[in-house]
């Protein structure tokens, strides 16, 4: 029997991260700001744009306390540096005093160059081709060696903890809790079976490759924010870029992505059968993530509907639909 708890907490460490503390942290490295500090949209971490004296503007990322071990952050930094050195279009952390990870008043933080730009257009064939080529470059290098410290995209690490968080929160009403428990357990067990034969194909990924983590400006396109980078199937970095509302649109998007990807490396066509499993895993993870982060004041402000009964009715409906979709291969659906 799960014990219900409320995720509400009176305070959060990020509440102490004032603009003055942000500027003090940057200047502790010997870099001098011009006093301008603007918070940027970010939930998992806290990210600020800081103006500098006689130097380009910096982006400063403060890591969520207790989420990553230092070795895990440094491993991600090393991967991004390797990608940048190989010519892959990524934004790498800046090294100050020979280090990319710093600490101030209990917070670990990193500095990045500012890269202005807009999200790519997923109805633009040229953008899709370039996205595919970009992911091909990342995966070619990502497959050369494995992470030793960062997690794996699987049910045990990404699915079951999120499910437990949902089941122990107080917001599911009446039969919703029983339905969610049974349905999510069945789905996660099925996903484990579907993904198991592919485990030897896992590589280092971006991990959260949606359009918000790609910046376009003129002819440049760069990847940002590998904070969710982990081991997993290559298709994880591609399926969220297929957003067409009709079968024909999705087929065309996938075709452009594949053509770009295969400029660099072979497209993992067999992994198309994992797309619905990954979609389902993301649905479960996302709702659990919100519950787990509820003590952070940013989350109740951004996701107030999570406490509503109707939200969980919708989640149950989506998961029920996914129970039918798990047996479908995108390869077969799109006939590519």
From TrEMBL:
What is the role of the protein in this entry? A protein kinase that phosphorylates Ser and Thr residues. Probably acts to suppress the effects of stress linked to accumulation of reactive oxygen species. Probably involved in the extracytoplasmic stress response.
Tell me a GO cellular component: cytoplasm
Q: What is its EC number?
A: 2.7.11.1
Point out the annotated site residues (description: ATP): 42
Name of the coding gene = srkA
Q: Which GO terms describe its molecular function?
A: ATP binding; magnesium ion binding; protein serine kinase activity; protein serine/threonine kinase activity
Q: Which family does it belong to?
A: Belongs to the SrkA/RdoA protein kinase family.
Q: What is this protein called in UniProt?
A: Stress response kinase A
Name its species: Terasakiispira papahanaumokuakeensis
User: Which Pfam family, just one, is annotated for this protein?
Assistant: APH
Matching entries from InterPro entries are given as: Aminoglycoside_PTrfase, Kinase-like_dom_sf, SrkA/RdoA
Q: Which reaction does it catalyse?
A: L-threonyl-[protein] + ATP = O-phospho-L-threonyl-[protein] + ADP + H(+); L-seryl-[protein] + ATP = O-phospho-L-seryl-[protein] + ADP + H(+)
List the keywords (alphabetical): ATP-binding, Cytoplasm, Kinase, Magnesium, Metal-binding, Nucleotide-binding, Phosphoprotein, Serine/threonine-protein kinase, Stress response, Transferase
Look up the record and name the cofactor or cofactors this protein needs.
Mg(2+)
Signal peptide: which range, if any?
none
Under the subunit heading, UniProt states: Monomer.
Q: Where in the cell is it found?
A: Cytoplasm
């Amino acid at each position: 029997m799960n014990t219900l708890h409320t995720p509400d907490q009176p305070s959060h460490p990020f509440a102490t991260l004032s603009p003055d503390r942000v500027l003090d942290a940057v200047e502790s490295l010997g870099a001098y700001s011009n006093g301008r500090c603007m918070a940027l949209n970010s939930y998992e971490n806290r990210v600020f744009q800081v103006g500098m004296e006689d130097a380009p503007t910096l982006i400063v990322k403060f890591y969520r306390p207790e989420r990553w071990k230092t070795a895990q952050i440094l491993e991600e930094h090393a991967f991004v540096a390797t990608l940048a050195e190989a010519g892959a279009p990524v934004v790498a952390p800046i090294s100050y005093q020979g280090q990319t990870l710093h600490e101030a008043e209990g917070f670990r933080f990193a500095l990045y160059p500012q890269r202005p730009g807009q999200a790519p257009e997923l109805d633009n064939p040229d953008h899709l081709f370039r996205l595919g080529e970009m992911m091909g470059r990342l995966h070619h290098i990502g497959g050369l060696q494995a992470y030793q410290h960062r997690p794996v995209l699987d049910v045990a690490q990404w699915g079951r903890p999120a499910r437990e968080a949902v089941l122990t929160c107080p917001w599911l009403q009446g039969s919703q809790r029983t339905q969610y428990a049974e349905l999510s357990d069945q789905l996660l067990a099925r996903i484990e079976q579907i993904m198991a034969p592919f485990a030897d194909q896992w590589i280092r990924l971006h991990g959260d490759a949606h359009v918000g983590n790609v910046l376009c400006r003129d002819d440049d396109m760069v990847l940002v924010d590998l904070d969710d980078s982990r081991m997993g199937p290559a298709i994880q970095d591609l399926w969220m870029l297929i957003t067409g509302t009709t079968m024909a649109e999705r087929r065309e998007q996938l075709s452009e992505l594949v053509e770009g990807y295969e400029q660099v490396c072979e497209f993992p066509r067999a992994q198309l059968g994992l797309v619905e499993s990954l979609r389902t895993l993301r649905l479960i993870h996302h709702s659990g993530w919100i519950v787990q982060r509820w003590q952070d004041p940013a989350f109740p402000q951004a996701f107030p509907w999570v406490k509503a009964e109707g939200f969980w009715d919708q989640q149950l409906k989506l998961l029920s639909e996914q129970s039918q979709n798990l047996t479908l291969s995108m390869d077969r659906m799109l006939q590519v």
